[in-house]
Structures are given as structure tokens and as C-alpha cells.
From TrEMBL:
Keywords: Oxidoreductase. The keyword Oxidoreductase applies. It comes from the Eukaryota. InterPro entries: NAD(P)-bd_dom_sf, SDR_fam. GO terms for molecular function: oxidoreductase activity. This is NAD(P)-binding protein. Belongs to the short-chain dehydrogenases/reductases (SDR) family. It holds the Pfam family adh_short. It comes from Kwoniella dejecticola CBS 10117.
Amino acid sequence: MTLWTFIGRQWTRLPPPPKGEYLKGKVVLITGANSGIGLESVKHFCTASPALLILAVRSIEASERVLAELQSLHTDLKGEVISLDLNEMESIKSLPSRLRERGIETIDILINNAGINPGNEAKPAEITKDGYEKTFQTNVLAPVLLSYTLLPFLKQTSSPLIKSKPKIIFLGSGLHATCNNQPIVDAVEREQSIVEIFNREEGFDNKQIYGRSKLLLHMFTRQLIETLVDTSIITVSPGLAITNLGRDFKMSIGFVIFGAPFMLLNARSAEKGARNLTSAVASAEQSYDYWAECGPSYSESSWLSSGQGVRASKAFYKEMIDEIEKISPGVTKAVVAS
């Protein structure tokens, strides 16, 4: 992506949030719903008459306050707050039983919104209790595991009697097209494991990991579209928005002089960024490889569509299926492509 393409996208005039009861009768589960893009999306959803809005979050008390405030404004809103920590695989694996304990058997729309950006300084990899690099687990592995774990809930809605297919939405980023993808290229050429390389402490680049994690996610979702044909898979880019995702950025002199002013000048509000997500929820009735500026779009990464990129994506998809099976045996068996 060139600088001018980025600026052009950022300054594209976005349509207003979707109107009408586009969520009538639908159950929506969204991760990371108490701040930023997630919170603004939830505010949009409240006006769309959802049957149930489930906030899957780490911060229970803060989210309960958010839900209570929203319900005071929308008295018919039915909502649930449930604990979910993407840094703990057991939290994801136990979610189905905890949902069923609350009488929740179906989900129409799953929104994988939660994510982290570890910042702009050089620092060593942080390894989770599950043994994975933290950004890789939070931004790539966890949303993939969550999607497969909740697929039985989504499949319950996949019926000829229901007009629209269930949806799984992943939050992408334009940085997938600008990051240095050399570790992925090297892994494919040397027939090494991409998953293993991204979870080594050796050679870890904290400044690059966020963009690389979004590239890996995009590689996976491109293949997932071909596998889950009865489910709409959409990767949404909200664009650069002012949220707390950048809370770990360090205010170096260079960043203060150049980076911060550029970001503040070109960044959207969180509400405008959320319009990309809510427009996909309201309008997308099929799978889309990339959704940006509130409509179907394209990835600026020419590498993704190259022969090497396609081979890498297929290899990474297979690796991820194997990895998910190690974590939760049997979770992918019903949907793995033959």
C-alpha cells in the first residue's frame, strides 16, 4: 500500500451507520466490546433490534456498566456479559458450556473484534501461559479457535428457513499489506513451520508483529472462505482509528515529532471506524475477502495473490488446523475440507 493510497482510504467519506432492524431476531456475539471499535459497533447494534447482544470480554465490571448504560437508553435491549480471555485457551474452550448454562444455543453473527498492538519499541517476545507469542495468540490463533469452537452454535442458524447465512467477521488491518513478510517467505521456501517461526523468541520483531499478525490472519481467512461455504466470512478493515489499541506506543522524540501528528491528522474517530464493521454486519450476505470503506474492497497486498502468497496461505491454513486440533481435539473435524 502506498502512502497516498492509505491517505485516500482514510479520507474517503463514509456513509452513516446502517439503519433499520437488520438484527431483528438475531443473536450477536462480539469480543472486545467495551472500548474502541467494539464499543462503537455495539452502540450501532443497539438500534438494530437484536434478539440478544453478547459481550464476550475480559473486563466484566466495565462491560456490565456499558451494558447497563445502553439498556437505559434502549429499554428493549437484551444483553449478556460473559468472560472471555483470548490469552487463555481454556477460556475459549469452556465458552460453549458457559453459554449453554445461560440458555444460549445459537449465534447468528460472531464478531472477532478483540486484538492487541504491542507498540512501537523494540522489546522481547511475551509468551503466554499456553506457550505462544502474545500478539500471535490474541490476533490470530485465538479468534480462529473461537470461530471453530462456536461453529456448532452458528450451524444451528444455517437453515433454508433462515434468509441469511450465519456470519463470522474478523477484524483486519491495512497494515497486513505494508508489513515485512520476509519471515513468511523464508519459511515457505525452506519448508519450515510458519506457526513455529512466529512463536520463537529468537528473531522476534515487536515493531512488525502487529502487521504480520494481521497478514497471517488474512492468509487464513482467505482459505477459510473456501472451506466454510455455508457461512459468510468477512475480513473487515476499520482503517486507522483513534482507539486505545495504541496504548502501548512509546512517545519517543521521533514519534512525537513525526508519527503522532501524522496519525492524529489522518485517523478516523472510533465511531467512523466502527461503520466499516457494522456495514458488513448489515449488508454482507456472502463471504468477502476484504471489506473496507463500508463495502466490498480488495487487499493492497499483491503478494497475497501471487503464486508464493497462495502457497504460503494454503500451508499456513493447514498448520493452523493442526495447531487448533492440538489445543482442542476434534474441534475442526466436521468442517475440514476434504
